[in-house]
Amino acid sequence: MGDPAGIGGELTLRAWQAWRGGDGCFVALDDPDRLRELARCMGLHVPVVAIAAIDTAPAVFPGALPVLPIALVVPARPGQPEAKNAAAVVASIERATELAARGLAGAVVTNPINKAALYEAGFAYPGHTEFLAALTGATGRQIMMLASPALRVVPVTVHASLRQSIEMITTARIVAATRTTELALRREFGIARPRLAIAGLNPHAGEQGALGDEETSIIGPAIDELRRDGLDVSGPWPPDTMFTEAARARYDVAICMYHDQALIPLKTLDMTHGVNVTLGLPIVRTSPDHGTAYDIAGKGIADPSSLIAALVLAGELAARRVAALGG
Q1: First CA to last CA across the chain, in angstroms?
Q2: Cα separation of 296 and 281, whole Å?
Q3: Among 10, 15, 33, 244, which is 20 to 30 Å from 176 by CA?
Q4: Cα(326)–Cα(321) distance, rounded to whole angstroms?
Q5: In this structure, are residues 113 and 123 in contact, taking their beta carbons and an 8 Å threshold?
Q6: The pLDDT value given to residue 290
Q7: What is the pLDDT of residue 308?
Q8: Residue whose C-alpha is closest to residue 26's, from 63, 3, 54
Q9: How far is CA 5 from CA 14, 26, 78, 127, in A?
Q10: What domain range is 241 assigned to?
Q11: What percent of the chain has pLDDT over 70?
Q12: Dihedral sign of CA atoms 318, 319, 325, 327 in order
């Protein structure tokens, strides 16, 4: 569902229009009346059909958007988040996760949420990623990857201030994030021998200690440990040069030290097709790499490309995971 006041509903409707002639299908977990009204207001020809069980979705999908109903408490108004609807947003995430965990759905694709509205209603998690980890029993193992055709990045620290992020960086945290990423690249992305580039923290990767010693005291030991384990790891790379076209050709993923170090280059290179992937979970989860976009919600101009990319990637990752596990 995502935040009902954001662009998630519009993206879902447009994604069905773009997808319905292809392979596979998806199911929306949302309020059917909300989606119908949204389609009417925007002039989108998208029939919406409420279904009682997910296994009926493939038969419905070619002619209509199948929806497992999650009722809103109050009508959604574009651009105006409402804490009273937080329970429905949370319920949609819980139901989707349950379906994927039981093998009834191949993956979970989440629309953007408004964390502030959820916090107001008592939501106790920093975001989707941590909530999904708790729901699947994977707390502490979840890793966020942002992926696009141009670049893949993994931030070692995510939802924390820059000051807190620097304090959180440890050799063990870097090693754990890199191992989880390497496994996912082999098992779900189909890369037999992943090349992992690890960013430095300081300008010029510390300039041999002149600009900071984290590269030698924290990051270097992590690289040494990972290499001893047989992983193809390079670094620490100077963050200001590791995202050029020539540099990106030398690795499959960049392991970055903090949120913006990872997300700024990815969003600059390919905001439209960027996808958020949660690694380390027992299920596949992706989402668009953007927010609720309240400023354009309900105006009919939101671009569904990132959601479509998230749906496509979710299907690919789910298929490779099943094959890797012998399913």
Answers
A1: 29
A2: 33
A3: 244
A4: 8
A5: no
A6: 86
A7: 94
A8: 54
A9: 16, 22, 4, 17
A10: 143-279
A11: 99
A12: positive
Final residue of a domain: which of 110, 140, 170?
A: 140
Is 16 within 8 Å of 88 (Cβ atoms)? no
Asked if 146 contacts 164 with a C-beta cutoff of 8 angstroms, the reply is: no
3 state SS of 40: helix
Q: What is the CATH number of the domain that holds 256?
A: 3.40.718.10
Q: H helices of the chain, where?
A: 8-19, 32-42, 57-60, 86-101, 115-120, 128-135, 162-168, 171-187, 214, 220-228, 245-248, 259-270, 305-324
- Quote the pTM value: 0.91
Beta bridge partners of 319: none
Q: How much is the pLDDT for 55?
A: 95
Q: Are residues 131 and 151 in the same domain?
A: no
Taking residues 168-176, report their average pLDDT. 97
Q: What is the SS3 assignment for 254? A: strand
CB atoms closer than 10 angstroms to residue 141: 15
- 135 with 148, same domain: the answer is no
pLDDT at 322: 83
| Alpha carbon distances (Å) from 12 to 4, 15, 209, 214, 327 | 11, 5, 50, 44, 29
For the chain, the average pLDDT equals: 93
pLDDT digits (tens, 9 = 90+) for 277-304: 999 999 999 999 888 999 999 898 999 9
Which one of 92, 121, 140 terminates a domain?
Answer: 140
Most confidently modeled range among 39-43, 222-226, 294-298: 222-226
Indicate if the pLDDT at residue 327 is higher than 60.
Answer: no
Q: Six-digit token pair at 82?
A: 């409402």
Domains in the chain, number: 2
- The conformational region for residue 102 under phi > 0 = left, psi -120 to 50 = alpha, else beta, is alpha
CA nearest to 236, candidates 260, 209, 276: 209
Cα separation of 148 and 273, whole Å? 6
d(CA 36, CA 120): 28
